[in-house]
Amino acid sequence: MSKKYKNFKKIIVLVLLGITTQITAQRTVEKLNRGLVAMRLNANQVYVGWRMLGTEPTNVSYNLYCNEVKITETPISTSTNFTHDVTSNGTYTVRAVINGTEEPASEAATVWAEQYLDIPMQIPPGGTNVSGSYTYEANDCSVGDVDGDGQYEIFVKWDPTNSKDNSQPGYTGNVYIDCYRLDGTLLWRIDLGQNIRAGAHYTQFMVYDLDSDGKAELACRTSDGTIDGTGVVIGDAAADYRNPNGSKTSTSTYGAVISGPEFLTIFNGETGKAMATTEYLPARGTVSSWGDSYGGRSERFVAAIAYLDGSKPSLVMGRGYYTRLVRVAWDWRNNTLSQRWIFDSGTSGNSAYAGMGNHQMTVGDVDGDGKDEIINGSSGINDDGTKLYSNSLGHGDALHMTDMDPDRPGMEIWQCLEEPAKYKTNGLVFLDAQTGATIWGLPANTDVGRCNAADIDPRYKGYECFGSAGVKDASGVTTTTNFLMDCKGNLISNKKPTQNFSIWWDGDLNRELLDSNKIDKWDYINGKTVNILTATGYSSNNTTKATPCLSADLFGDWREEVIFRKTDNTSLRIYSTNIPTEHKLYTLMHDTQYRTAIAWQNSAYNQPPHPGFYLGVDMAAQTKPNIVLPSGNLSKDDFSETISSPNAVVYPNPVNHSFTIAAKGNFTFVIHNTLGQEIWKGKGENELQIKDKIVTPGMYIITIKTEKGSSVIKLIKG
Q1: How far is the C-alpha of 299 from the C-alpha of 287, rounded, in Å?
Q2: What are phi and psi of 13, to 5 degrees?
């Protein structure tokens, strides 16, 4: 952690009868630069786009400069892009204008000849094992700012061509994770080793600024033989837990890793150094306790990032969803990895959650309390690790959650289900995200493997929901019907778009369709897709899933970029839109539901990211996100909990009748109960200890004031 961050950080340590801190005022997010891009449209024009930051007021405007000469007569106030009529290529900067005052210049951008950026890759060497020869392909990617300069670096997972699903026997090559700068500089490479099998279900790598110090970390499952980015081996370098026994042609444990230790490791994003390693939870235990003997159930992993305390991100690691379902929340704070909570469907009272998970999780504040909940698929876990709901709809392969129906309060879920006949439910369901209750659904009695939701038709307010559902009759004949529905459950058409992925690309508020290496527009009049872009020579991933390496709002304005791998894997290509838009929105990366979705996008079966608000035609005027950057004075910073023990602890903390307040300089504070009654008032200088106070169970609110500002903290008794 940098000295600058330590000097600015105000620490609150609050341990009172199991009381823990909860900050609802603001969420800490990345400090991004402008993401300025310039692309030549033709011989006479250059397209320029930039970010509207979530820390800026909604009425911010911008002056654009080329070669340090202002090219906009008046500040741009209705968009964050500009088409410059110019035949020569220059260097661009942009300056925000807030309350009539021009801010400092952004980073500079030179002109791309095309609408993409190519990043050269260093392909790991292939190899041969007892299952045969293999080479490497760039698979899922993620992004994080590892050095604090406001620009993303690219994390790349390399999969061998002999990667395996859990149900498939065989040895695989090692999995590698690289970190690259946008110019192709390789910062480091992590070798996960022979005891981490390669495949879609084994390595969910979470990239995020977990400790809010302004620099991203990497977290993933490791084992004996993992080599960090500095060349240091974790555990026993010679250990080999791959099973050499069993059939090589049928489902068995041959080549599977279903024994030996598993670890959770936090890696430094800038160096790849392993900073902390602990036992991976949920632990495997007895393989058969997950539903089979060959690891098809026990070796199913998912992961996510969530703001469980309403202020700072936590890591959520999961295991299992077909039968037993376990989720564990972790905090990485002050160079300490601590367990926040664990939820296990095998625990007494939680049996309804068994089998109620998807091949992915999604995250968002579904109950409006400022803290994120974990949505497993057909079940939800509250921010504190307690039960939210289980709706008994069973396992599914695709899950979408956002405000799909802006006329309803809260968010909704669109989900497809694998065993509707078994669970006596519909095959496609539209749910209330807070309760899991079905609002409407579409019948099926066969596996519905894919679905999507996006606002693709401007004639209907809200998201359109689409998928295909099969009904098998008594004679065994299956009739499959395509559905394109509005968010109220009304049929629009039996013609449906491609459903693998979505992307905001052109100039309107509708979302476009991303499938394989193509971007298409839905022609809602004629019921067909119209191609906008094809990445010739570049490929998607994950076989029939046909998903990109990553799709996210990486730079430019609020619209999204897409990363494909070159078919020969020698480079990645990031495509960015060069279509002007009149819509001015905050960067999606400063919406924390969208940003955490970018982090979990690589988890098992990839899903498109959705924001925590309705983004579409007829959307309400956007409000300023309730966020804060990792550094600044008290009025712009948050308070964070520190753990005194170097070992992992489980929240809430042990009973104690005292707590300590610490804030830079002189400060005053007042404690109220939820009725607004004053319980305690005090003054301090840098630190003040309060002993044997507020012993009545309940919730309390502390207001702290210094000469630099104030902050409000809720204290909830555990």
Answers
A1: 9
A2: -110, 115
Q: Are 233 and 356 in contact (CB under 8 A)?
A: no
Rg (CA), the chain: 25
- 281, amino acid identity: L
Q: Are 79 and 583 in contact (CB under 8 A)?
A: yes
**Region of poorest pLDDT, from 339-353, 393-407, 467-481, 685-699:** 685-699
Q: E strands along 99-152, which residues? A: 101-102, 109-112, 116-120, 127-129, 132-134, 136-144
Q: Are 178 and 267 in contact (CB under 8 A)?
A: no
Q: Tell me the residue type at 393.
A: L
- For residue 104, is the peptide bond before it cis, meaning its omega torsion is within 30 degrees of 0? no
CB hemisphere CA count around 45 (13 angstroms) = 10
Beta carbons of 40 and 113 less than 8 angstroms apart? yes
On the question of a cis peptide bond just before residue 57, with omega within 30 degrees of 0, the verdict is: no
Task: Compute the distance between CA of residue 383 and CA of residue 365 in angstroms, rounded to an integer.
Answer: 9
470, two tokens: 């099969």
Q: How many residues does the chain have?
A: 718
pLDDT at 702: 64
Inter-residue contact 158 to 139 (CB < 8 Å)? yes
> Do residues 715 and 28 make contact, with C-beta atoms less than 8 angstroms apart?
no
Q: Are strands 398-402 and 550-552 parallel, antiparallel or unpaired?
A: unpaired
Cα dist from 206 to 156, 252, 257, 348, 506, whole Å: 12, 30, 22, 30, 29
Reported as type and span, the H/E element at residue 265 is: strand 263-268
**Cα 120 to Cα 124: distance, rounded to the nearest angstrom:** 13
Q: Which residues contact 212 (CB under 8 A, 6 or more apart)?
A: 28, 312, 313, 630, 638, 640
Name, in order, each residue with C-beta under 8 angstroms of 677's C-beta and a sequence gap of 6 or more. Answer: none
The three-class DSSP label of residue 87 is coil
Distance of alpha carbon 293 from the chain centroid = 32
Q: Are strands 45-49 and 81-85 parallel, antiparallel or unpaired?
A: antiparallel
Report helix, strand or coil for 229.
coil
Q: Where are the beta strands (DSSP E) in 426-537?
A: 428-432, 438-442, 451-454, 464-472, 478-485, 491-493, 501-503, 512-515, 518-523, 528-534
Residue for token pair 């936090």: 266
Q: For residue range 511-555, what is the model confidence (pLDDT) as tens digits?
A: 999 999 999 999 999 999 999 999 999 999 988 889 999 999 999
425/136 Cα distance (integer angstroms)? 41
Q: Which of 314, 315, 465, 355 is nearest to 400 (CA)?
A: 465
Give the C-alpha separation, 445 to 428, whole Å: 10
* 412-416 and 428-432 strand pairing: antiparallel
Question: Which stretches does DSSP call E strand in 538-643?
Answer: 538-539, 550-552, 561-566, 571-575, 627-628, 639-640
CA–CA separation, 287 and 295 (whole Å): 6
Euclidean distance between the first and the last CA atom of the chain, given in angstroms as a whole number: 30
Quick count: other Cβ atoms within 10 Å of Cβ 267? 27
Tokens of 667: 């400060």
| pTM score of the predicted model | 0.86
Phi, psi dihedrals of residue 544, rounded to the nearest 5° = -70, -20
- CA nearest neighbour of 448 among 421, 417, 473: 417
Q: Report DSSP state, residue 593.
A: H
Whether residue 209 contacts residue 27, with contact meaning beta carbons closer than 8 Å, is answered with no
pLDDT tens, 591-618? 999 999 999 999 999 999 999 999 999 9
Q: Both tokens of residue 54? A: 């979530």
Write 275-279 long-range contacts (CB < 8 A, 24+). Answer: 275/217, 275/335, 276/332, 276/335, 276/336, 276/337, 277/222, 277/234, 278/337, 278/648
- DSSP secondary structure string for all residues of 199-211: STTT---EEE-TT
